[in-house]
Write a structure and sequence with these properties.
Length: about 475
């Protein structure tokens, strides 16, 4: 796809005309397209897994669970509930508006732009697509140029199964993004970095286009002194190093209580070795960094000599890397402080810094000094500690005694707050995101109670209206 403005308009014009015809407003049409999407994924499952392997080195099992299953679950949930979601819903009518009835009428926004990231290039594009289809929109999908194999597959898949006037795919880099954002869309859904999120929001503001931004941040993971250490170590090692740490809701850093610090670190090391062996580079279940640019950024956070046992060396485990293979070993850094470079911004890679705490007050104070994270994880059996963290620390969503798994529930809307994003999706929330609800009042034609408020006002009693309201 070129960046020529005229070419872009030629792509978008038939989409606008198709939406104006009204076919997508029919629930039967939406249901058929969701089933088509499900069929397309199932019939191309192997191709999807291969593309993800070439782009990110994703093991087939990991890719299937994290990229394909999540989308299929969204489709099935939408199909099960679509009729109820798409119907007008009756709401209460205040006494002073009687006789009358009040309704919320769901309608699609129109032409939706969904911009996907490179770390989960299939799932994070198709999961919002499910909601856009279910809501009756036409869609432009912008794939990530950093995941070229998956991008090409998505383009072919959409072209083979869908009318390009209903769903179309645009490929390319930042220049194409800039050209797309100059066009008028009815809704923009973006997943990616904070830096690009600001660009998207600024462009959307020019056309007063509503947006959902799914961004990121430094997600804290707290291991308190009463935590189940074996459970915590296994879940944290899995959540941090899946997809080689390139997950927006992965634990970004650990806060570990000083009383159990040493025991936990040893348990965490055992979990990492159990998952990936002594040589993760040779293990078939460990992925790779997306490209050399991101590799270089992460390598700068590693000590230059991981074998150096000098007290200033903070590598507890790992630290090895190989640029040609885009490989960075699962790495744990100990004795980290907030002044270390690794704590300045979201890591987005297989490097796990560990801070120590003695009481929750210092944890809460430390987290609140920085932007509101996308996710927070707490390992403890103490109900009071759980309530305190949930009450005093702002974040998008999270888990107690688990990591990442809150994303799997269609009943839990997913999204950030502040710099970690705005808006939510998953399950019903995805439908709501791409739907405008028209508020309507249907008044009776037989009795006009409103006449009590018509001019002239000399005979009207304010005291009566005060009681009514």
């Amino acid at each position: 796809m070129g960046t020529n403005e005229q070419e872009m308009k030629q792509v978008l014009q038939p989409i606008r005309e198709f939406f104006a015809r009204g076919e997508t407003r029919e629930v039967a049409y939406r249901r058929y397209q969701l089933k088509t999407l499900r069929q397309a994924i199932k019939e191309n499952e192997e191709k999807i897994l291969i593309a993800l392997y070439f782009d990110l080195g994703k093991p087939s099992f990991e890719a299937f669970l994290s990229e394909i299953v999540l989308v299929l679950q969204e489709i099935n949930y939408a199909l099960k509930n679509l009729s109820a979601w798409a119907n007008p819903s009756k709401v209460k009518t205040p006494l002073f508006l009687l006789p009358g009835r009040s309704y919320l009428y769901p309608e699609p926004y129109g032409i939706v732009l969904i911009m996907g990231p490179w770390n989960y290039p299939f799932q994070l594009l198709f999961a919002p697509l499910v909601g856009a289809i279910a809501s009756g929109n036409c869609v432009v999908l912008k794939t990530s140029g950093s995941a070229p194999h998956t991008s090409a597959l998505i383009k072919d898949l959409i072209k083979d199964y869908f009318d390009p006037a209903f769903i179309t795919v645009v490929e390319g880099g930042s220049e194409v993004n800039q050209q797309l954002l100059k066009e008028k869309f009815d809704y923009i859904f973006f997943t990616g970095s904070i830096r690009v999120g600001k660009i998207v929001m600024k462009a959307a503001a020019e056309n007063l286009t509503p947006v959902t931004l799914e961004l990121g941040g430094k997600n804290p993971c707290i291991v308190d002194k009463d935590a189940n250490l074996n459970l915590a170590a296994s879940k944290i090692a899995w959540g941090k190093f899946i997809n080689a740490g390139q997950t927006c809701v992965a634990p970004d850093y650990l806060y570990v209580h000083s009383d159990i610090k040493q025991e936990f670190m040893e348990t965490l090391l055992q979990a990492i070795r159990k998952f990936y062996g002594d040589e993760p580079q040779k293990h078939s279940d460990y992925g790779r960094i997306i490209n050399q640019g991101h590799f270089d950024r992460l390598a700068d956070l590693l000590p230059q000599d991981p074998q150096n046992k000098d007290p200033q060396n903070k590598v507890y485990f790992g630290g090895h890397s190989q640029r040609e293979d885009l490989y960075i070993q699962p790495t744990v850094l100990d004795e980290v402080t907030w002044s270390d470079p690794v704590m300045e911004e979201e890591i987005f890679g297989p490097i796990l810094p560990v801070l120590t705490f003695d009481n929750l007050h210092e944890v809460i104070a430390g987290i609140r000094k920085f932007s509101k994270p996308l996710a927070l994880y707490l390992f403890t059996k103490n109900k009071k500690s759980q309530k305190r963290i949930w009450r005093e620390v702002p974040f998008g969503g999270g888990c107690v005694n688990n990591v990442i798994m809150h994303l799997l529930s269609p009943h839990l809307p997913f999204g950030g707050v502040g710099k970690s994003g705005m808006g939510t999706y998953h399950g019903r929330a995805t439908f709501d995101t791409f739907t405008h609800y028209k508020s309507t009042l249907h008044s009776s034609t037989y009795l006009d109670m409103q006449s009590l408020s018509y001019p002239p006002y000399q005979s009207k009693r304010i005291s009566w209206w005060k009681k009514l309201y």
